[in-house]
Amino acid sequence: MATMVDVAQRAGVSIATVSHVLNDTRPVLPQTRQAVLDAIDELGYTPNTLARSLVTARTRSIGLAVSAISNPYFTEILQGVEAGALEHGYSLLIADPHDDPQHERKIVQLLYERRVDGVIIAPSADPEALLRYLGQHDVPTVFLDRLVGSPAESPFPFDQVCTENAEPTTRLVTHLAELGHQRIGLVAGLPGLSTTTERITGYRHGLAHAGLPYDERLVAHGNSRAEAAEEATHALLSLAAQPTALVTANNAMTIGTLRALRRRGLSVPDDLALCCFDDFSWADLFTPRLTAISQPSKEIGAQAVRLLLERLASPGRPGRTVRLPSAFVHRTSCGCPESSKSPERHRKGPES
Asked: Is the pTM higher than 0.85?
């Protein structure tokens, strides 16, 4: 079995240089790095990860905790995390907290007990137990998609990455209002999630911008899941004064809403206009094609890895929140004819 000594001899470098290439602990000239990598490949050398972790106190592994991994949005985030981790020589341990606060805390504890170097988490609606554990054990952490409020300690010790939520939702509502809709309903997400709160805020801003009154009866919570969204849509369509347009606040709830409309024999956009937050790969295949807000899901995942690696390199620095821009994708479910489709446009969000 080949050793580091064999690799160093084959590449014509020192053992320390081989170590720096393997552990990314010091810059190495590109041609030297390539010589080491070629020697590793030729000799079939496999680093002893366990032995290396005992020396460096690092396992080069990341724990990822996201609920509803089957959701295409989170699947793409996972792909972004995986690509970013592999690029830097890290492996992933993945768990699903099921949006349950107690299970979430237990899952993260299990990940950290397996000596991951840090964790990336899409937090639940009630992350207090999780925050206590992370703070008590000083776990390097990045929150993605959903933000958490700053705990009592200052400066805030965690990093966060998400997309813009309020302004894009405002844009969906104002677009529907410009088409003449005065009763615009919202199928909102799980209460307590930052994404839910911000998208409701955007919905209300859109109504105010259009000069339309806010009616709380036109907001029904689909709890970020298809089944609950189907029930929420039925509730909205059972109002004495039904909405003429709907905004759904994530892609799973869009599916639930479409099921409810089909069961009622209603057609989009002839009977009811529809816009959704979250684009997904087959949104362009529906009839009509879905007008949507597209999030940079893979980039969210990749950015989370970058933030975590920066945190590992500088544990004491203040936390950062990074917001990435979304894109408005104008199709036909809003009631616009195909010929009037506008190009996809991007809005850049701030970083704090």
From this structure: no
